Every structure is written in structure tokens, then in C-alpha cells.
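Record type: monomer structure entry
Structure origin: computed from sequence
Chain ID: A
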Amino acid sequence: MHDFIRYIFYLFQNAIPLALIGLAIGVAILVILNRKYRREGERFPKGQAMALLLLLCYLGGLAAITFMNREDGVQTGVQLRPFLAFWEAWNSFTLQIWLNPLLNIAMYLPLGVLLPLAEKPFRRWYWTLTAGAGTSLVIEMLQYILGRGQADVDDLICNILGGMLGYCLCMLFLSLAGKRRKIAGAYAILPVLSAAVLVGVFLTYHFQPYGNLADAPIYAANTKGIEWVSECSLSDEPGPSGVYWTEPFTIESSDAFAVEFLGRQGVENIFGTPDVDDDYHDVDYYDNTALYTDHHTYSLWVTYKDRSYEYTDYSVDSELRYSDKGGAITEDELRTALEKLGIEIPAAAEFITVDEEKGRYAFRAECVVENDVLTDGELTCWVAEGGILYKIDNTLSVSTLHGNAAVISPQEAYERLCAGQFSWRDVPMFNYLSPQQVRVIDCKLEYITDSKGFRQPVYSFTLSDENDIELRDGTGWTTFVPALAG
């Protein structure tokens, strides 16, 4: 089952208990009001009553979704940078990341619809806006205070937008039903603009030549007052301009790969066979990965975009797998073991011993380009005593040249680094530590798989500051600056 569907089911399941409580409270209130109207000889407003009942049911479900499905202490804190969630979704461009802002919008659509139907004062836009903003603000504050989540300004923005979209849709319907077509046009503006922006974003992504880098800069780090010292040579000439490509896995081709790979281990696969009910063989599909496992003898994680995978053979005795002492194996013996699994080692990859005592060996290639073919990454192998290969993590990729693209020079990349325009994942910690001096130890061109599966060039910088000894065992840290111009 795809994780998106599972997540939606999970939200609804968690919302049911409190939604039913809200429904029960609503029924009790309506029974009391109905008796009051009868005593006074007035007509009971059934339409408003039903809207109020649904509103209370919705508010109960909303409370469950925002509080009950969170673990204590997870993602606490305050996030005050507007539209960070949208930029993160743009960079990653996966369904799972886009769900964060889009579900926050959708979650408040019912509030905007039900408030005007339940109480006429909310048919004025500013009352619905106030109610939506107030509800969201209270929830964000309680999440922070109770440690049930992060107080995020993007959640507030998305919730308000969702509430107003629901309001506009509701008032549009009421205006058309009342044959007030002139005012109906005004209520259609926000939904139409919102839909146009969303479609524009997805069309822009579709037609751009390459994908986006998940960790590309979003906002600049605070580098004011920091001394930058370059200890490596930085050319003013642009580096190699190639962008490389390997066909990413689809769900279907990933299934086919899993069937072939695991079939060599004697595993009878039924992946991709929805009519078969099997408690042992299981496959879970995620945004960019798939997990194939029988929960006791093997697991295979496959990543679609870069075609990497991780295989673990659980049939090997656990005492061997979890032992601090690994097994010894020669390069030829390891190649033979990998060949039995159908794994071919690229000629550009070199054999290295990562940790002989723990049985860690690898074939590694660092951005080797020969005849328009890029070989990059590492195939790491875990070997138990007796020379038993029981785990493989293969990020070693072979890509062909897709086309040339303009790139910036190492010197320009360094200038962007000094301006704080590096990987946004590293910015919060950089700002928190606020180093006085940063030494640039090394700069080299590397390649990162983007959201469409292309291998894009980036400049990777090895940096050092006064926090190395205390926080990083004196090894420094790395970040990157995108190399493509523009």
C-alpha cells in the first residue's frame, strides 16, 4: 500500500473518536434547541442545525488530527520563516513533502464552508477570516505548549488560506443559488487564483529541463561578521558542464528488479500481484522508495530516482550479523559473491577495505568520467565471520551524459558560500553555532541526483571552524553550492 493512502486512513481513523464526541455534543445541543423552538412556537432551522452538527463533528476530528496523532516531544519549537514549507516541497517535489502544505489547506476547507451555513454572521468574510485565523493560532500555540508539534507560521498561512477557500466556495454556491451572479464572480476569484498558481507551479516543474535538488539553498545563512579563510585553490574558470542521466525506477520496474534480484536468493515473489493474499511477502510503496520483505529472512529497500538499493539477508544467524567482529574476504571472493547476486562492478570502481575488523568492504568511485559516462558512489558490503555476505548498500551509479549546461566557477561558488547561499539543511545549525571564523579546506565538483533523476553538478566544500573539536571530533563539516548557472 502506498504511504499516502495509509497516511490518509491513519488521519481519519484517529479523527473518528473525537469526531463522534463532537457529534454527540451537537446532537444534545440541537435537542435542547429544538425543544426551545417548539415551546416558543417557532420553526426549527433544520439547515442551520445540520451545519452546526457537522461543524462540531469537524472540530472534534480537527482536534484529534492536530493533537492525538502526535508523539510527545516530536518536532517541537517555533518556525517563523514564511513559505518555507512551500520551498521545501518545491525542492523535493515529492507527494509526501507537498502533502504538508496542501493537507494543511484542505484541513480548513470544511471550517470555511460550515461556518457561514451554521451562523449567518460568518457570511461576512472578516468574521470567517477571524475565526479561521484564531482557530489555527490557538492550535499552533497549544501544540507548542503541550509538546505535541511545532508552532509553524506556514501552518497558520495554509490554514487561513484553506478556511477562506472554503468560505469562498460556500458563498459562491449560495450566491448562485440565490441568483446573485454578479457577486458570485467575486467569490470565485480566490479559488481560481489558487488553482492557477498550483497548476502553474506544476507546469513550471514539468517543463523545466532538470529537476530540483532537495537540499538546495532556500534562504541565506547569517554570515555577517564571519571571517572566511580559503585554504584551497579556487579557479575562476567554470568546471565540467555535464549533466548525467540514468533511467529512474518506476513502481513497475522496481517490482521487476526485486523479483529478479530476490529470485536469485530462491525467494518466490508475488510482488505486483494484488489478488494474492500473502502474510509473508510484503511490499510497501513510498514516495521515492519501496520496501520488499517477508519480515524474517530478507528485506530489500529500493530507491527509485537514483536506482540505489539496500539488501539484508536475515537468514544469516543474528549472532553473526550483530557481532562486533566481522569476517575477512578478498576482492576476488567478494566479486564472486556479488556476481551470484547479479551485481556487476563498474570498471571505474576500486576495491577498498572500510573496516576489516568489522567486516566492512566497498567498491568506490568518486566522480569518474570516461567517454561521457559518470561512475560515482559506493557499494558497501557487510561480511560476517566465515566470509558470509549478509548486507549490501549499493549507491554506486553509472550515468551517461545527457547534455551540457552552463555552470559557475569554483570562485563564484565560494563567493555564494560566503554569502550564506549553501544547502538550506545546514543553515539552522550554522546560524545557531554562529562561528567566528570558517576555513575552507577543500572544494571539489560532485554530482547529486535531482528530483527528476538527473545527476546535477554541485560544488562540495569541506569546512572547519572553532566548533570542530567539541562537536565533530575535529573532522570539520561539508556543505554544497549548486553549480548550474542561473
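Annotation 1: The CA atoms of residues 30 and 49 lie 7 Å apart.
Annotation 2: The radius of gyration is 28 Å.
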